[in-house]
Structures are given as structure tokens and as C-alpha cells.
Amino acid sequence: MKLSLVERETILLYNQAEPMAEVYTHDPRLMEKLELLAKKHPDQITRKDAHNFTVPKRCVSVREPYSAERRKAASERAKAAGYQPPVRKPSS
User: Fold this and answer.
1) Is 32 within the bounds of a domain?
2) Locations of Basic and acidic residues compositional bias (predicted)?
3) Residues of the chain whose pLDDT is less than 70?
4) Number of domains present in the structure of the chain
């Protein structure tokens, strides 16, 4: 069953007493990223079940949005360095 975009939610759960956060997600791209990180860092990131992961709280961040100027400068630096963005797989 394919979920709608609204149903592909992500819930982050953590408290100040514990060093780990729980991530519950139905976002396919985030799940893929968490799966890769769990394989690369099994001592820190674990998959609890199909949609739940445990990650260190320090991996969760909320940042200030990029300004248009900052985004343009970053784009120009990347192009000057020869960076090519990854090719996305077609969604099924």
C-alpha cells in the first residue's frame, strides 16, 4: 500500500534525561538514509523495527534557514569545486 505524502510523517521523540532520540518515519528517503547510517555506525544508530530508529540526540538539529545569498554562494563554491549532485533513483 502506497502512502500519501501527508501520511509519510516523521516523529522525533527525545527528552533531556537520555542521550538518544527515537525516530519514527514513513519517509522513504529518510528511512534509506537512516538504514545506511545504521549499517555504517551500528554502535550508535540502531533500527528497532520497520519504521523506528534510535539515534544520538546530537544527530538531531534545527537550523536557521539559508538566505538566498548564502544558498547562491554555496552553489557557486560547489560548482567551482566541480561538485555534481547525485542522480536520484526513479521512485517506484
Assistant:
1) yes
2) 66-79
3) 91-92
4) 1
